[in-house]
Structures are given as C-alpha cells and as structure tokens.
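Please, structure for the following, as tokens.
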Amino acid sequence: MKIIPNRDRTSFGKLKSLGIYSVLVAFLCLFLGCSYKPSYLQKSARTLVAERWQVKKIDPAKLSPDEFLVFEKMGSPQYVRFFRMLSPERERVYEWIYVDPVRLICFVDGKQVAYVVVDEDTSPLNENQKKWLYWGGVATATTAGLGLLYYYLIGSK
C-alpha cells in the first residue's frame, strides 16, 4: 500500500475547486448578457424574431430626449428591435417599428438618426476584436496545457 502525501491531495483539491468556480463564473456571465432589451420597456412580449419585443407598456421617464419626442408625437411603437451598428465601435441601435402605417425609426445610443447601417450580429465585438480574443484564447490554452504537462511529467519528480 502506497501512502500519498497530504500535499498532493490538497493541491488537487484546490485545482478542482478552482475549475468548478471558473465554470460557475462563466455560466453566470452567459446569463447576464443574454438580452439587450431596453430598460424603458416595462411590459413586453418576445416574438419569433430574434431581439425583437412586442411593446405592451413603456416607461417615459427612462427614455432619452429624442425617444421621448417621438413617443409624444407618434405614441408607443408596436415593436422594438435591437441591432448593432456596422462600424468598429458597434454602437447599440434600437429600431422602433410602427405597423399602421409602416414606419421605422432608429435610435443610436438614444439619439434619433435618419439613416444607419445595421448588423444583425448582436455581439459587441467587431471582427478584429473577435480574432484577438480567439487567438488569445488559443495561446492561453496552449500555454496552460504545456505548463500542466511540464508539471506532471517533469516538475513532479
């Protein structure tokens, strides 16, 4: 019977609990960023279209000045849809949709704009940032894997 020193058990236990906490934090972050629903929607219903809400009630106190002017003039929109601006900054764009007659009014960071080029991809990261994040993750995982291999194959002897 081989006796394993208590030091190995505690370091494995610490590594195991660190892994569990990391997974829990990752899941928590996923749930926090699931929706881009605007704060001024008091009551709304999801629709079959992604990032679009059917408006039931709006809180006028939470509207920007431009949004409030449109709200006073045209009333509550039937739908609100979320996009990202197709630019390196990826600003938030909310489109108010009036059905009868059909009118589309866009707001970029609360300011009404006459024309905006939007992207249906709701990620706040542009293509360059996504590449950096991807390759940074690959480099980090490779370094961690090599470090673990070194520790278990060479360092533990």
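The chain has two domains: 41-119, 125-157. The radius of gyration is 25 Å.
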